[in-house]
Amino acid sequence: MKHDEKTLYERIGGELTIFRLVDVFYHKVAQDDALRAIFPQDLSTGKYWQFLFLVQYWGGDTRYSEQRGHPRLRMRHMPYAITPALRDKWVQYMFEAIDEVGIAEPDRSTMRDYFSSGASFMVNRHSEGAE
Ligand code: HEM
User: How far apart are CA 90 and CA 77, in angstroms?
Assistant: First the structure.
């Protein structure tokens, strides 16, 4: 198969790379007090769904939809107070994770564009609240 006939999913290394991406990303989330605070106590379930969702989104198997139904991501994020500042941290850590697992161009930019606009779509609170 010629290089340009491969899909993004194949080029980046399939589910093993996505597993590592989510692992690196969640490690960063766990170390950031402000971002960590909006996640549940137990990170493992959300991490699993994130992994399966990204496998499916980027062209792998469809276990996410089989096990979880329609993603409805904006609705699923509503219980979590996602401010523009937390969105920026989320994107920063995902961008760092993309580089740390070694995803190369042009896939790096494709993924950055998706995560950047997708994360903006999840913003559901426009002030920091009354903390
Ligand atoms: C493109 C951007 C994003 C994608 C693709 C994404 C994807 C996901 C997925 C697939 C889940 C699990 C949904 C399920 O339960 O089936 C999830 C959960 C969650 N996401 Fe996102 N997300 C994005 C942006 C964000 C942002 C910007 C934040 C916060 C700043 C955020 C915070 C959370 C939280 C707190 C959960 C719940 C985790 C849990 O239940 O353990 N997400 N996200």
Answer: 13
CB atoms within 10 A of CB 7: 12
Ligand 1 shell residues, CB under 6 Å: 38-40, 43, 45-46, 49-50, 53, 68, 73, 76-77, 80, 82, 86-87, 90, 115, 118-119, 122
Q: What pTM did the predictor assign? A: 0.95
> In the chain, what are the domains?
12-122 (1.10.490.10)
**Using 50, 70 and 90 to split pLDDT, how confident is the model at 72?**
very high
Q: Are 81 and 102 in contact (CB under 8 A)?
A: no
Instruction: Write the CA distances from 112 to 33, 78, 90, integer angstroms.
Output: 24, 23, 12
Q: Is 87 helix (H, G, I), strand (E, B) or coil?
A: helix
